[in-house]
Amino acid sequence: MKGQRLRLVYNPYAGRRKLTVQLDTVIRIFQESGNEVCVHRACSTEDMEQIASQSKDVDRFVIAGGDGSIHQAVNGLIKIPENQRPALGILPVGTANDLAYALHLPKSIPEACKVIAKGNILRMDTGQVNERYFVNVASAGLLTDVSQKVDTRVKNTLGQLAYILKGIETLPSFRPFHIEFEKDGVRSKEEVVLFLAVNGHSVGGLRQLVPKASLTDGKLQIIIVPAAGWPETIRLLLNVLRRERVDASKIKEFQTSELIIHTDRPIKSDLDGEYGPESSWHITIGPKISVLC
Ligand SMILES: [Mg+2]
After folding, report:
1. Cα(127) to centroid of ligand 1, in Å?
2. Which residues of 3-42 are buried (b: 16+ CB within 10 A; e: fewer)?
3. Residues 35-57: tens digit of each pLDDT
């Protein structure tokens, strides 16, 4: 096999510095499997996106980080023309690792290195909201900006609990919003507390939250939780979290490859736990990217 050029980019603070202590092992496994390795230590998430966008000189772009780092890397990689775009490798060292879970990647760093070294490619869908891309989930409303508000150090120490505590803290100040969209020629209006467009099947560390979602079907799974007064709203949210669809008439769920959503006031979106565009949103399936898995 001809030697592959591989760029390893890591966020030194992700996941309790899980990668930094294994860096030598990682480089050894990649090198011994015939990769010519270059390493980049990312100083910020913007740095991650920029280095990805300039990586047409390598065959494999390996990111060691969580869903946020992968999100930035994918937004950078998509700027490279498809025939020059390197394949994406993932070493899951973040807190939630929703995408790594959906791809069935091993949790152990050396095992994940071996998967990348093997070189099997999956052509994975991305989702797109206006000018930005996402790999796992686009969302708006209740609990969706929690990840952005939780400090990295707190995330590392408390893990999932940090999200839940921050989520509870944001509840009292939350206001539902109105959305308007068209599906199959029918216009719908809805007052909502939560809107999700899902590509992978786990969200915010909740495994198999959306089991019907597939990373390769060219569709996004849309889930809309309407506002229904607080006790009912909390009940509906719990149904979603417990993966129950007891009241299918209240929670809307459908598949689509394109959806335009208008809101009654500017609403922030969240893409893979990072800030996304404000509404209105043009949501579509984006380009496919090659993932080593
Ligand atoms: Mg899909």
Report:
1. 8
2. ebebbbbbbeebbeebbbebbeebbebbeebebebeebeb
3. 999 999 998 878 999 999 999 99
